[in-house]
Amino acid sequence: MTSLLNDTDRTTHSTGADYETLAARFRPLFERIAAGAAERDRTRTLPRDAIDALKAAGFGALRVPVSHGGFGASIPQLFRLIVELAAADSNLPQALRSHFAFVEDRLNAASDAVQKTWFDRFVSGQIVGGAWTEVGNAIGDVRTRVSKQGDGWVIDGAKYYSTGGLFADWLDVYARRADDDGDVIAVVNRHQPGVQLDDDWDGFGQVGTASGTTRFQHASVDAQNVIDFARRFRYQTAFYQLFHVATLAGIAQAVKRDAAELVRARTRIYSHGNASRSGDDAQIQQVVGEIAAWAYAAEAIALRAAEPLQRAYDAHRGGDEQAEYAANLDAEIESAQSQLVVSDLALRASTHLFDALGASATSTAKALDRHWRNARTVSSHNPLVYKARIVGDWAINGAEPPYVWKIGDGQQNPVSGARA
Predict the structure, then answer these.
(1) How is domain 236-397 classified at the CATH fold level?
(2) Which end of the chain, C or N, has fewer beta carbons within 10 A?
(3) pLDDT by residue (tens digit) across 327-342?
(4) How far is residue 90 CA from its own chain's centroid?
(5) What are the percentages of helix, strand and coil residues in the chain, rounded to 5?
């Protein structure tokens, strides 16, 4: 993929690094994370140590430009690493999803002192969690409010699905101004009075994402951290959705890894099988081969779908509005298409895994069911039927996809507003 920026811009804009050098920094850490993933799932233990290790290694600064102390990774390189991290533990990419989205927003913001402050925080290891979704609200409405107080602001309200919040230093909160009803992002220091986070996520999968409830009671917000939502980076929805796609691709990679390792070590066979060793049985080899092919396809699709996002970033930094518009459109369509296919591949692989093994594979000690539970949970975040319709409408009628959407109670009177 050719960048629209000149070589002289490559240290000040995040257009890419040497991937193998970058990955080599994190792969030993990914191996250690993978070693404890099954046990964390069995005991429903939050991966605090893993998050702390990632922060210390600078993982949260992957997209920060080299000139500001980061790694300058491109968006496809970021998602390639997310696939590798998800193969180790799929909870971690989802827990860091809001962080990287906020980093991306700061990358697209004006190059000023505020941007530099955030880059310095990212490089120091600080991370951002998300708090957007509410329950009990009318579709499009936002009950969380920010109000002027002196030279700053205060925030009040409650959010559900606050993914990664318990690991974070800051919270990216979707809210509404009390004075003019304008939609904003309020970036809230999580370590202050008036911010309460509960680990009450009760889903059967992705149990270590810290996706619980956050409550705000007159918590303070610096004036520079109340950001007009209309200024949010334009490819945000595609970016958020590609985190799900990359996570699913990583789950498929984990299934491939576990299938190969367990078959290789398996000594028990069936009398009506095809070999004296499970690893030499042609039908078992076929099962593992199919899983490997699905995992390969899932990753390839995820990385292909990340390319238009990088073009959108490059075009924005280069001031090419026409190229930016085209790239944003491609990003939405390709992210939707990739979700439709990769969700199916990951779920298929995580079920087919058991066709290569015996009943002992269902032992809770192995926790192999977590792959399906996690894939099912990730792929349920946004209804795939709507994705298919949007892609179909584009293919047939050239109808542009929605760039943001809303969720809420459809029985109440809807009001204007962005996705919560």
Answers:
(1) Butyryl-CoA Dehydrogenase, subunit A; domain 3 (1.20.140)
(2) N
(3) 999 999 999 999 999 9
(4) 10
(5) 55, 15, 35
16 in Cβ contact with 4 (< 8 Å):
no
Domain(s) labelled CATH 1.10.540.10 in the chain stretch across 7-127
Helix, strand or coil, per DSSP, at residue 133: strand
Helices (H) and strands (E) in the chain, counts: 12, 8
What tokens were used for 380? 């349920």
**7-127 adopts what CATH topology?**
Butyryl-Coa Dehydrogenase, subunit A; domain 1 (1.10.540)
pLDDT, tens digit, 9 for 90 and up, residues 261-286: 999 999 999 999 999 999 999 999 99
Tokens of residue 120, six digits? 């310095």
Burial class, 241, CB count within 10 angstroms (exposed 0-12 / middle 13-18 / buried 19+): buried
Residue range(s) in the chain whose domain bears CATH number 1.20.140.10: 236-397
If you classify domain 131-231 with CATH, what class do you get? mainly beta
pTM over 0.90, yes/no: yes
From-to residues of CATH 2.40.110.10 in the chain: 131-231
Q: Of 160, 209, 164, 216, which is closest to residue 188 (Cα–Cα)?
A: 216
Q: 63: closest CA among 27, 17, 18?
A: 17
